[in-house]
Amino acid sequence: MSDERRRMAGGLDYRHGRIELWHGSGGRAMAQLIEELFETSFDNPFLARRNDQACFEVGAGRLVMTTDGFVIAPLFFPGGDIGCLAVHGTVNDIAMAGARPLYLAVAMIIEEGFPLADLKAIVASMAAAAKAAGVAIVTGDTKVVERGKGDGIFITTTGVGVVPAGVEISAERARPGDAVLLSGSIGDHGVAVLSKRESLAFETELLSDCASLHDLVARMVEAVPGIHAMRDPTRGGLAALLNEIAQQSGVGIALNEDAIPVAPAVRGACELLGLDPLYVANEGKLVAFCAAEDADRLLAVMRAHPLGRDAARIGTVVEDSRRFVQMQTGFGGHRIVDWLAGDQLPRIC
Amino acid sequence: MSDERRRMAGGLDYRHGRIELWHGSGGRAMAQLIEELFETSFDNPFLARRNDQACFEVGAGRLVMTTDGFVIAPLFFPGGDIGCLAVHGTVNDIAMAGARPLYLAVAMIIEEGFPLADLKAIVASMAAAAKAAGVAIVTGDTKVVERGKGDGIFITTTGVGVVPAGVEISAERARPGDAVLLSGSIGDHGVAVLSKRESLAFETELLSDCASLHDLVARMVEAVPGIHAMRDPTRGGLAALLNEIAQQSGVGIALNEDAIPVAPAVRGACELLGLDPLYVANEGKLVAFCAAEDADRLLAVMRAHPLGRDAARIGTVVEDSRRFVQMQTGFGGHRIVDWLAGDQLPRIC
Predict the structure, then answer these.
(1) Pairwise CA distance, residues B255 & B325, whole Å
(2) In which domain, by residue range, is A9 found?
(3) Of the candidates A195, A186, A107, the residue with the CA atom closest to the CA atom of residue A153
(4) Of the ranges A8-12, A249-253, A335-339, which is most confident?
(5) Are A201 and A308 in the same domain?
(6) Does residue B100 sit at the A interface (CB-CB below 8 Å)?
(7) How far apart are the CA of A171 and the nearest CA of chain B, in angstroms?
(8) Side-chain half-sphere of A62: how many Cα atoms within 13 Å?
(9) C-alpha count within 13 angstroms, C-beta hemisphere, residue A315
(10) Chain B contact present for A19, CB below 8 A
(11) What is the three-class DSSP state of B109?
């Protein structure tokens, strides 16, 4: 019996075991990792066939495809971890097209020496998030890099979803007069991650808002199929999102600062850390642009959902060839909300 | 004018420029990188819409989805680089289901300080490979990690493709009596990468075989729609592939060593490096399992294609409840071709 066979005979050692280079080398150790951890946790017939690709039936129509690499540090943060984040983030990018998520593919790049216990926790978190979102993780890939050539684990999640007939949501479709609706308070994710990174203790525990928004979106699209544009304010925060939409649609946006919900604890932490909540990442919020006459109906649907309880109309799309995002401040003044400047929080997602 | 704006006014500096953390932070620098490099190079209307997802029409039927992370070191090697490899690898995983590749998604994790010139070369290589394979890179993501937390660049490529009606290729479908066909010589990729890594100079230049096999596969599937199983021998080499299929199909495989093509220069390098070509990675080869009566026809189609010129029938599927891969050696003996043992070449793809 070879050393390798002996090592594997007892199953993966989640207590003391670590990822080694051979877990990524295409041999028996990789097969064991796939079988004992990934197949068992993600449990679906696509994965169980052990092909290098998953095959599924689709009806004729429009699909969306989206991919995101997750490099967040730390891997575990208040309110979530890189595993559920990788599922939520990709589910949300599918949902932002008004689409229903169907299938996910997961590629992991793991650093040699990474504890199997942490990998197990992350995989369990992914599995739970995928189950809750009604999506199957149907195919995957695992690579291992030498110690010092990575940082624990990076996860790239790619998803496909199906767009309902009649829905046409895209960044260039915002029009002057459109209402700008935000699904809830901003800054929670970024501040929660930063508080953990900097080992800050606040009186109120700050939790990431990380969540899958597909169900909220399904209800929104059902009520108002003609939503013009929709996006989730992740890296770069609300400010980046609004500037991107203004740029793509060739419009300006007039914001009302008082209408933008920010939790008091987040506001306090931002002041302490010298951050503007407008630029801080969120992982469970969305912004929708719709015709003014649809705004009340859409807002009511959002507020009726647990993930849109604090939804608010935060502004209006205006004609502006300079494509500026401008904000009426609480003090009655105006300021330009520019793109994020050079220095921001790295590795927030 | 801020420093950041001044820096960006002149466009990306491919001569001296390097990736900085702000290229991944969701702000203006990231937008510039996407616009000037990715959109220009990958040039397609999906990407140009700048949504966080790509939307496309599909007909009713079966799709495949596959994902692979590429962490190869060195990034540039004889016969290719991480860019074209990331396209070929994913195109091939789609093709191995007999499917026609349609769309790719690309997620990059780049280390702070990575030269923009290298990124440009890699992106150009990806664009050329995608164009040659007739696939569009329709969506993507860029993350930047701090110096020392990555290794230059990691690329995860995910693809979708469409399976022709009547084609049902899967790892569990090999049957006793099936012919085992290999499309060409083995070991080229692994040996080429290793020669560069170890700075070895051989008399004959060793080149990676890295190539997209979709066109070869299209002809094979057209000639013999009933191919049972197909896979490309990447990490773990031919030995891993044969063991995987034997395992999944519940069969044994009888190989004929003399029939397996190995280029003399590769054989020589393997002897020098102490490698067995059976375990060395390939990136432009495939193995097909088909009914004995289809074998001659399929082999003829493979040999008529430039990427299958040296195709050979290397063995036969046999009944074996132990699922062993056995090889008749050139000297008339027999040996078990086991799974890859623990130590193999890390980061070969």
Answers:
(1) 7
(2) 3-163
(3) A107
(4) A249-253
(5) yes
(6) no
(7) 6
(8) 17
(9) 28
(10) no
(11) strand
